[in-house]
């Protein structure tokens, strides 16, 4: 944990270690392969591995990581307790049925922790203390049977007690928990204090072991530090995915989703780059967030290499579990539609994807209005007053195109034949966009139908404004 | 081997030279009986690319699709318009019975974005119809879109210039549009089934609200006081009070 609090951002090419009070506390596999051991003086370690990236232990970073894991783990059970400095306890007996058994929960936790960049020993036991002892000893066993507990506990070494008396106990011939349990209780209590005896009893379930469960934070904010400065979108995404996995657990615990993610990329000197992801519909899937983020990061220009990534979510909203439907088509569309819009917007920009709506205005340019479709539903407030128009073309030109005139007849690839008209549109004097036009349906020499108009002005210029496609 | 022949007959990718292929999913009725009769599946194919090659812009390529789009939208399916050449005009779409709430327009700046967006839309289950106006597209890119279309069940239509008729295509259906006396001539250049030599003539009913056309409409929309006299003088004046 002391190491992973720093290095989960990126796989590091160099050996790394964390030191506390000038002694190596923990080192990674690369450093261990070159002879580093925990407890070694820092000077000796650096002599062995000159390229070692050494960090001083930061208790605050570890605590934050532990809190992050606890919030994430609340997707499995609301009862999560912390056991400082490096233990998270989950009371899962109430969740077994929902998740399909202990093995499934363990697999889910293990996979999630890997995605977030942590490694952990998972252990389950009928009492919290026994579970924490198993995990501490590195024994990944899932014990559900209280009858098996004592025999399994007996094999654990005394180091799981984390007691100052460990050496004394060892010197009187007790090498394992089993040896302690075999000693007479009153003598043990007299020599080592009642607390040792209580701990043993709590582990075996003979004494209650109440824990205070942690409370889920209101907001999500997690930071990941990059061991090496990164500029590549892929590297940033790798680190961001660990945060997104954490976010997914947090949101699942709250049965919520979010529409807005804020990612700030911290640089050495320049102000942080902010990347904001907006969603059409609330969502909590890390995979979907990652997809959107990939597009955004590839387009984001970075002023400097990135040192740390912070993921923040301010507002969450309840997200209901979707029921599986026998006829899944309609449902699939409801789920996929916002996703599709978000994917398109993340690459093309929000303005490039829009809907259209009719507006009760006689001026052709204003009768069709772009609609920022934030949801799949029709806007109820939009003006639904429909005007009874003469035939209108499917295509409207973005800007009317001036037409040449030959012998009082407008031309577009040859002279136009006016089929219908004029439809006089004279409107808009109140808002400055005044227009006075006579519209005609015209046919070109090659039988295309156009919508043209003539300005009602002395010059009387002709324009092409639409195509009856 | 009657067993094998029967089995082959069931395969949607295999058809007899003289017949139309049986489509795995029924087509979307085009609204024109003469056209439906010639299309495998009895309508516009779903889950496959359709290419429409109009001779010129404006001869009725959208009107041809109108009934199918209206049906899709009324079923609550979304229709994506990707890289349209002009602004799709809401009053006309509404008049054609296409629910505007089901239309989304995607504007792209580059050809690569157009293809990407099309692939995304085709691959997602969200769209009932995907209309694409690619500027430049080669066989490999068409093949990619065809594969994406096969993954979904949407109506996938590509509008391409008539010159593209000479290029090979992986699309399941390719129709060239030309004008003929008083109507639209559809030549099916490619379909899953026997080739069709003669064009299908769709009558002039394809023209927009043709009932309006013989007469000259003297519709005026006047709301400024200065031209009220003109409006009053007109026979079928409509006064729109703002």
What is the percentage of strand-forming residues of chain B? Answer: 15-25%
Shape of chain A: elongated
How do the strands line up in the largest sheet of chain B? 4-2-5-6-1-7-8-9
Q: Could you state the oligomeric state of the chains shown?
A: heterodimer
How many strands in all of chain B? 11
Rg on CA atoms of chain A, Å: 34 Å
The overall average pLDDT of chain B, rounded, is: 78
Tally of helical segments of chain B:
7
Under CATH, the topology of the largest domain in chain B can be stated as Rossmann fold
Question: Beta-strand level of the residues of chain A, as a percent range?
Answer: 25-35%
Number of structural units classed as domains of chain A:
4
CATH class of the largest domain in chain B: Alpha Beta
* DSSP, total strands of chain A: 19
State the end-to-end CA separation of chain B.
77 Å
* Main sheet: strands, sense, barrel of chain A: 5 strands, antiparallel
In the CATH hierarchy, what is the architecture of the largest domain in chain B at level 2? Answer: 3-Layer(aba) Sandwich
The whole-angstrom Rg of chain B is 21 Å
Largest sheet of chain B: 8 strands, mixed
CATH homologous superfamily designation of the largest domain in chain B: P-loop containing nucleotide triphosphate hydrolases
Task: Describe the global form of chain B.
Answer: globular
What's the order of the H and E elements of chain B?
HHEHEEHEHEHEEEEEHE
């Amino acid at each position: 944990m002391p190491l992973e609090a720093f290095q989960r951002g990126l796989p590091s090419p160099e050996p790394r270690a964390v030191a506390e009070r000038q002694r190596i506390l923990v080192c990674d596999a690369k450093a261990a392969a070159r002879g580093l051991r925990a407890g070694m003086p820092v000077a000796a370690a650096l002599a062995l591995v000159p390229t070692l990236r050494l960090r001083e232990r930061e208790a605050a970073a570890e605590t934050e990581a532990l809190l992050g894991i606890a919030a994430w783990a609340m997707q499995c059970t609301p009862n999560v307790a912390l056991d400082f400095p490096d233990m998270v306890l989950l009371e899962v007996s109430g969740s077994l049925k929902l998740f399909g058994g202990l093995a499934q929960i363990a697999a889910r936790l293990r996979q999630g922790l890997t995605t977030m960049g942590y490694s952990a020993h998972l252990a389950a036991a009928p009492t919290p203390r026994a579970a924490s002892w198993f995990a501490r000893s590195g024994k990944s066993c899932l014990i559900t049977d209280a009858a098996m507990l004592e025999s399994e506990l007996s094999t654990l070494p005394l180091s799981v007690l984390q007691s100052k008396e460990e050496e004394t106990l060892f010197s009187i011939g007790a090498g394992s928990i089993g040896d302690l349990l075999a000693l007479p209780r009153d003598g043990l209590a007299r020599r080592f204090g009642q607390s040792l005896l209580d701990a043993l009893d709590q582990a075996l379930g003979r004494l209650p072991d109440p824990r205070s469960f942690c409370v889920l934070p209101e907001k999500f904010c997690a930071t990941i530090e990059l061991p090496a400065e990164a500029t590549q979108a892929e590297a940033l995404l790798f680190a961001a995915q660990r945060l997104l996995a954490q976010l997914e657990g947090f949101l699942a615990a709250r049965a919520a989703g979010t529409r807005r993610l804020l990612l700030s990329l911290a640089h050495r000197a320049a102000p942080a780059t902010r990347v904001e992801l907006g969603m059409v519909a609330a969502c909590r899937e890390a995979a979907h967030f990652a997809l959107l983020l990939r597009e955004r990061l590839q387009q984001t220009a970075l002023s400097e290499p990135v040192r740390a990534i912070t993921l923040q979510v301010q507002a969450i909203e309840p997200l209901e579990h979707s029921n599986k439907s026998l006829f899944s088509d309609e449902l699939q569309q409801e789920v996929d539609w916002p996703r599709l819009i978000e994917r398109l917007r993340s690459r093309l920009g929000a303005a490039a994807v829009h809907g259209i709506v009719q507006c009760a205005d006689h001026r052709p340019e204003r009768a069709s209005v772009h609609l920022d479709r934030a949801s799949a539903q029709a806007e109820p407030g939009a003006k639904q007053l429909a005007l009874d128009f003469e035939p209108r073309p499917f295509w409207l030109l973005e800007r009317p195109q001036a037409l040449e005139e030959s012998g009082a007849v407008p031309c577009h690839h040859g002279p136009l034949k006016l089929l219908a008209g004029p439809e006089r549109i004279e409107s808009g004097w109140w808002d400055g966009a005044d227009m006075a036009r006579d519209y005609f349906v015209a046919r070109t020499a090659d039988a295309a139908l156009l919508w043209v108009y003539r300005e009602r002005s002395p010059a009387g210029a002709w324009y092409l404004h639409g195509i009856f496609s | 081997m009657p067993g094998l022949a029967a089995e082959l007959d069931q395969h949607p990718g295999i058809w007899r030279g003289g017949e139309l292929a049986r489509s795995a999913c029924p087509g979307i009725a085009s609204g024109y009986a003469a056209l439906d009769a010639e299309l495998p599946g009895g309508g516009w194919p779903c889950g496959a690319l359709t290419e429409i090659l109009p001779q010129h812009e404006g001869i009725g390529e959208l009107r041809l699709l109108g009934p199918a789009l209206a049906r899709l939208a009324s079923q609550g399916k979304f229709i994506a318009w990707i890289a349209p050449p002009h602004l799709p005009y809401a009053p006309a779409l509404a008049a054609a019975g296409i629910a505007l709430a089901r239309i989304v327009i995607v504007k792209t700046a580059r050809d690569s974005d157009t293809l990407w967006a099309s692939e995304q839309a085709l691959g997602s289950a969200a769209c009932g119809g995907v209309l694409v106006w690619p500027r430049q597209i080669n066989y490999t890119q068409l093949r990619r879109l065809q594969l994406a279309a096969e993954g979904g069940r949407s109506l996938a239509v590509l509008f391409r210039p008539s010159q593209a008729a000479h290029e090979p295509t992986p699309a399941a259906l390719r129709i060239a549009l030309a004008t003929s006396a008083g109507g639209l001539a559809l030549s099916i250049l490619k379909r899953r089934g026997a080739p069709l030599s003669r064009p299908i003539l769709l009558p002039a009913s394809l023209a927009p609200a043709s009932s309006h056309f013989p007469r000259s409409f003297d519709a005026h929309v006047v709301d400024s006081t200065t031209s009220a006299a003109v409006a009053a003088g007109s026979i079928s004046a409509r006064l729109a009070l703002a």
